[in-house]
Amino acid sequence: MQIDKALIEKIVREVVVATLAESPGQTCGAAIQTEKEPLSGVTAVKVGSVQPEPFDTGKAGDKVFLKDVFTLAESPRLGCGVMEMDGSTFAWTLNYDEIDIVLEGSLSIVVNGKTITANKGELVLIPKNTPIEFSVPDYAKFIYVTYPANWEEQQ
Fold this sequence. Notes:
By secondary structure, the chain is mainly beta. The chain has one domain: Jelly Rolls (Sandwich), CATH 2.60.120.10. It is built from one helix and nine strands, in the order αβββββββββ. Strands 3, 4, 5, 6, 7, 8 and 9 form a seven-stranded antiparallel sheet that branches. A two-stranded antiparallel sheet has the order 1-2.
């Protein structure tokens, strides 16, 4: 059976546009403030309104919080969210591509024994299938952009 990807994308976009039109001013969670143009789906997010939630790194004591802002509901390809870390380091293998944009503090990525650090206003690219450690000795807040959007479902 042949799947018509263009038709599926068209249907998803129509459903998303209809959903956005029903709730102007907010999507991606009740507390997140947004501004959007419903026909195109162009959306601006007030990052300060995003309240990251605890994220289980599998290691007790880690202070890691994140909140997806754009998911498959808003974008069939890219995902995006806000992450905060405080005095934590944890191992992670990315089965998706990710770009991190540091808003506050410093984010270090440990890979193959080398530490790559990005400070406020800097970017990090982490290619798919890269085993790393996210490391923040003090505090960092950053935006992550993932491909594909459903990064948590990637095996």
